[in-house]
Design a protein that fits this description.
Chain lengths: 628, 235, 282
């Protein structure tokens, strides 16, 4: 149903050259796809790393010849050494959190669909948009270099031109510090051991670059949403996805500058010899601070300060990862339940409440860090109160399903999976958010299980749902449903098998970030579980190959899709498939209804599109209350 | 289970006998298509001929405010370093006298920028140009005064690597200076545009640009005052 | 498909709950005075967590089972935009449950962290360094000798930088394992020489970071004699997973005998005691 075009209506001329069209494109749709491709590449790297970690934990000492060839220093003879494992931990976390969970949901799907869903022809500043993608890509390149610069002599030497801080080849495959990079380990430099040399510098630089890219993106999202909504698209008629992307952009806007500031200081500590995060009187690797040219004098820094700066960013970051998934889930649940979102207004308030509270709970990562025990109490109670809007969202999702006519497409399965996993992962926040219980739980596998389920897997399920749902619009072709279902069943069962036992490991007391558990007697009983988790991880990761195949096969060979194949209501389904360069072929739509008018009594179809005129629907500003 | 319904569905589904509400729909004749059939726009954004993007002052203003929010967050985070750094071996750093001069310079520059803005409103092109030049000059003087201030600091024995607090003096002024260089570039941009008569003086575009550059400039002024007070009061 | 999904969700829920209630894997038996209260709070919380988790999953499964589109029904879904009354109701209920849980959880925290160790506590200085624990005992006089980072010399085994010219240092002992008395408050003064480490004995039910540049004091009372594993729980570098030591909880007479010994005999006695006590059965 392509729009009839008026005579005299001018379209945006689409760029014709390949480079302007697909590489340095300013079209938000192309940029969105670029972000998604970046995330797909990054998630593949991150997954392979997690696979290697599981192999090392379950079958320590086994020789994997390929590994020996790729990383001669990290895995001599194919056997991983502990610093190799720890750099995998660090790189896996950093790549997944920054380059997957932040890029795909926001930069990818947000970029593609936010302008279309609010009826705009592009982002407010298309060139800025392009820039934010390319900056992010440079960040990704730098983090990949961080893996190799230290492990590979030839690359390391090439970098030595940049000065001694960047000379690599120190014998590991990357930085060691976890994705949180706690100072002073991360601030001291090479003296603190393997993984603290050039790779760590590149790690900090990569994150700083990423901050800049995300900030540029956030500027654009906020301005676009506030300023470019089409006629009739009042705030309360926006799809919940737009609310989620908007809130995410606000979170990014206010939290990334803090990390950027912290990153600059950390880098200064590392390469300029300052002492922001390094206290006086340190004695590292047999040397006293100030006694040796390799270890200059440091005075007066505060290691906890880095944690404050990091987590002030880091906690909102968790919501940056999950909010778009929540938005997509609400959107897709409603579409395939053939029913309006239950409690639209409450959903909007919940998103805002989560975003707002997210700025006041960072201290719950630091209960045992040595900060004031009184502030721990405040952080603890505030943390548990974040459970309230989260629960409200869950209730409303289940409310949306009540009395529905559910169509089980792959997209819907993943959206339902999101709800299940969000509950499973989020609910343990009640344990970890209590300062008392954190005394026992901190830095054990229950933390790993909690955040992987809720911010990792649930967010990824939101993205899977989004890609099965929107691929027909983006490329005009469906993903294969059979493969999609196989992918869903394997992944859904797989992730539960991986992460539920990890809770138990945490209760027993298994610490995170251990290259091996062989040293401790009290962990021996856990070996069957460790093995179970690893086997499940191998199967689940293998199942993702089905997804990759399905995706790329479908883009080129999938069944063709019409303009509105899911019988959905929002603006992206009113335009052609795939949408033209300026989204609406020169004529911006006018909106008359709320976003989720399904099953309207008396309407000819069971869905009323936002642009439909004349249907007997209350003008629909997401009001509550029964309407019959 | 029912698979996805894949057939094309037209969205034009107005089969109801009810009268079509005409909200916002000007032209009659035929059912509105999915895109409303009529050039859209929500009033803020304009509509009509879309072959050229319409200039949107609001977009620029929102973006500038949002950008400033991000910048303020960064300086707030950095200020916490100053407040939280350990007390051991901390030396009291005396405010270099030159920083008082800096403060005066930047305060006056905000004033001159306001004058430029007013001249624009009064449509006095020469005054507008002159006040912009004055702002530019004051901005440059500010940067120079900062460099002199640094030299005063080193002379007083406050070195870059000594203690977070002393490093802080350099880092925070350098970052503020870097941001101010951005402001100077923006002012320069206004001046060059004026000098080359790119636009008639009283266009909306010119007013918007002058407005947002002013926002940025005043915010840099505000951030400096904040830093100055921080350095002055927290000893 | 709806029924299959419902069944899978229910099976996953059942298996997850079974894993938790099986009792095959759980906390190691606690040995500290505050632990029963912490364990109780944990049980209450996990009960709330378990019930919420189970209820939500059963509800979700029920919805997808009951409201699947069978294709035969021509009628539509229920047309509703929600219910303000319900929203208010479940917001208030969850707020009450979650926040009171949070407030209840503070009692253990308050008892451990909001006041200093009681007078007469047995004090030990803990000095962590990359991949090694050092424990500094005050000796006969009950006074810790002066330490100074400048005097640290790992090469000559002065790991904590003890100043031998200080009179109080003469009877001090430094070992790589921790010995504390049973049933008596213990105060640990935690320091780190290089990066952040974390003191973690699972049976004690508490952790604390050791932060360079800070001396953090914690206190607890152990109430069961024995030998326990001590781990580092904060990533500290390459051999983090090997940064292991033992904590001995000794009867009063043994600790009295131990703490009057000079350095060499102290260490020898420590080795003897470490061999004497077995680890708990896991």
């Amino acid at each position: 149903m392509s729009a009839e075009t008026h005579e005299g209506v001018h379209r945006h001329p689409a760029p014709t050259s390949f480079i302007r069209k697909y590489i340095f494109s300013t079209d938000h749709k192309v940029i969105g796809i670029q972000y998604i491709m970046l995330a797909l590449a990054a998630v593949a790297v991150g997954m392979v790393m997690s696979l290697l970690m599981r192999l090392n934990l379950s079958w320590p000492g086994t020789s994997w010849p390929i590994l020996g060839t790729l990383f001669p220093t990290g895995a001599p003879g194919g056997v991983m050494n502990p610093e190799f494992y720890l750099s995998l931990v660090t790189m896996h976390g950093t790549i997944m959190v920054f380059f997957v969970l932040t890029t795909a949901p926001q930069g990818g799907f947000g970029n593609y669909f936010l302008p279309i869903q609010i009826g705009a022809e592009d982002m407010a500043f298309p060139v800025l948009n392009m820039l934010s993608f390319w900056v992010t890509l440079v960040g990704f390149m730098v983090i990949l270099l961080a893996i190799f610069v230290e492990g590979n002599q030839s690359i390391g030497q090439w970098f030595s031109a940049l000065g001694p801080s960047f000379t690599g080849g120190s014998g590991t495959v990357g930085p060691i510090g976890g994705w949180t990079g706690y100072a002073p380990l991360s601030a001291l430099g090479k003296i603190a051991g393997p993984g603290q040399g050039a790779g760590m510098n590149l790690w900090v630089i990569s994150i700083a670059i990423f901050c800049v890219g995300s900030l540029l993106g956030a500027l654009n999202f906020i301005t676009t949403l506030l300023n470019m909504r089409t006629k009739g698209m009042s705030l309360m008629r926006m799809p919940l996805t737009c609310w989620a992307w908007f809130t995410t952009a606000v979170l990014a806007l206010l939290s990334f500058p803090v990390l950027l500031g912290g990153g600059i200081l950390l880098l200064l500590d590392r390469i300029a010899g300052t002492s922001f995060f390094i206290p006086s009187g340190l004695y590292v690797s047999g040397l006293l601070s100030g006694s040796n040219p390799n270890f200059p004098l440091h005075t007066g820094g505060s290691p906890i300060l880095w944690q404050h700066l990091f987590w002030f960013f880091g906690h909102p970051e968790v919501y940056i990862a999950i909010l778009p998934g929540m938005g997509a889930t609400s959107h897709i649940l409603s579409t395939f339940a053939r029913k309006p979102v239950f409690g639209y207004r409450a959903m909007v308030f919940a998103i805002f409440a989560i975003g707002l509270l997210g700025f006041f709970v960072w201290g719950h990562h630091m209960f045992i860090s040595g900060m004031s025990p009184y502030s721990a109490i405040a952080f603890s109670v505030l943390t548990l109160s974040i459970g309230v809007p989260s629960a409200v969202k869950t209730f409303n999702w289940i409310g949306t399903l009540w009395g529905a006519r559910i169509r089980f497409t792959s997209a819907m399965l993943f959206a339902l999976g999101f709800v299940s996993l969000f509950v499973a992962g989020g609910i343990t926040g009640l344990i970890l958010g209590q300062s008392s219980l954190d005394l026992a739980m901190h830095d054990t596998y229950i933390v790993t299980a909690h955040f992987h389920l809720v911010m990792g897997v649930a967010s990824i399920f939101g993205m899977f749902a989004a890609i099965y749902f929107w691929l027909p619009k983006m490329f005009g072709r469906f993903m294969d449903e059979t493969l999609g279902r196989i992918h869903f069943w394997l992944t859904f069962v797989g992730v539960y098998t991986i992460f539920v036992p990890m809770h138990i490991m945490g209760i027993v007391g298994m610490p995170r970030r251990y290259a091996s558990f062989g040293e401790y007697e009290f962990l021996r009983t856990l070996h069957p579980l460790v093995l179970l988790v690893s086997v499940a991880a191998v199967i689940t990761i293998a199942a993702q190959l089905i997804f990759y195949f399905n995706l790329f096969w479908s883009i080129f060979k999938g069944k063709r899709a019409s303009d509105n194949p899911w019988e959905a209501t929002t603006l992206e389904w009113t335009t052609a498939t795939p949408p033209p360069h300026d989204n609406f072929a020169g004529v911006l739509p006018t909106v008359y209804h709320g976003p989720y008018e399904f099953a309207v009594p008396g309407a000819p179809n069971d869905f009323v599109m936002q642009t439909d005129v004349g249907a007997d629907v209350p003008s629909g500003d997401g009001h509550n209350g029964h309407k019959h | 289970m029912s698979g996805p319904t894949c057939q094309a569905v037209t969205a034009t589904m107005v089969t109801s006998t009810k009268k079509i509400p005409t909200r916002g729909i000007g032209s009659g004749g035929g059912f509105p298509g999915p895109n409303g059939k009529k050039p859209g726009g929500n009033g803020w954004h304009g509509g009509g001929d879309r072959s050229k993007r319409k200039f949107s002052p609001a977009a620029y203003r929102i973006t500038m405010w949002v950008l400033l929010a991000a910048i303020v967050m960064m300086f707030a985070a950095l200020s916490s370093v100053y407040v939280m750094s350990s007390e051991e071996q901390r030396r009291v750093v005396a405010m270099p006298p030159m920083f008082f001069v800096s403060t005066v310079l930047i305060l006056v520059s905000s004033g001159t920028f306001q004058r430029a803005k007013r001249s624009l409103k009064l449509e006095e092109p020469r005054a507008y140009f002159r006040w912009l030049l004055a702002t530019l000059a004051l901005g440059c003087c500010f940067l120079v005064s900062q460099l002199v201030g640094w030299r005063e600091l080193t002379r007083a024995g406050v070195y870059f690597k000594e203690h977070p607090r002393s490093t802080f003096f350099y880092v925070i002024t350098a970052l503020h200076g870097a941001h101010l260089i951005g402001g100077i570039a923006l002012v320069l941009f206004l001046i060059v545009r004026r000098a080359r008569r790119v636009l008639p003086l009283n266009t909306e575009k010119n007013a918007t640009w002058t407005g947002i550059v002013g926002l940025y400039w005043h915010m840099m002024d505000g951030i400096w005052i904040w830093l100055f007070l921080l350095l002055l009061i927290f000893k | 498909m709806g029924r299959a999904l419902a069944v899978i969700i229910w099976i996953i829920t059942l298996l997850s709950v079974l894993l938790f209630v099986s009792g095959k894997w759980w906390f190691p038996a606690a040995i500290s005075e505050h632990a029963p209260a912490l364990d109780r709070q944990f049980m209450i919380t996990i009960l709330v967590v378990g019930i919420s988790f189970t209820a939500a999953q059963i509800g979700l499964g029920w919805m997808v089972w009951k409201y699947r589109d069978t294709g035969s029904r021509s009628d539509r879904a229920i047309y509703t935009h929600g219910s303000n009354r319900l929203e208010v109701l479940w917001t208030i209920i969850t707020a009450i449950v979650f926040i009171s849980l949070g407030v209840m959880g503070q009692s253990v925290w308050a008892s451990l962290r909001l006041h200093d160790a009681p007078a007469g506590s047995y004090s030990v200085e803990v000095v962590a360094q990359q991949f090694q624990w050092n424990f500094h005992y005050a000796g006969k006089d009950g006074k810790f000798g002066r330490t100074d980072p400048k005097l640290i010399d790992d090469g000559s085994l002065n790991f904590v930088g003890l100043d031998s010219s200080d009179a109080a240092a003469a009877d001090d002992a430094v070992t790589s394992a921790l010995a504390i008395p049973v049933n008596r408050p213990v105060e640990l003064r935690l320091r780190s020489k290089d990066v952040i480490h974390n003191f973690w004995v699972p049976q004690l039910r508490f952790k604390q970071d050791l932060v360079p540049g800070m001396e953090i004091k914690v206190h607890f009372t152990a109430n069961k004699v024995g030998k326990y594993e001590l781990a580092c729980a904060e990533l500290c570098g390459q051999l983090h997973y090997k940064m292991k030591s033992y904590m001995l909880v000794l009867p009063e007479d043994e600790i009295q005998a131990l703490q009057v010994l000079p350095q060499e005999q102290f260490q020898a006695k420590m080795v003897e005691l470490l061999n004497k006590y077995p680890l708990p059965n896991y």
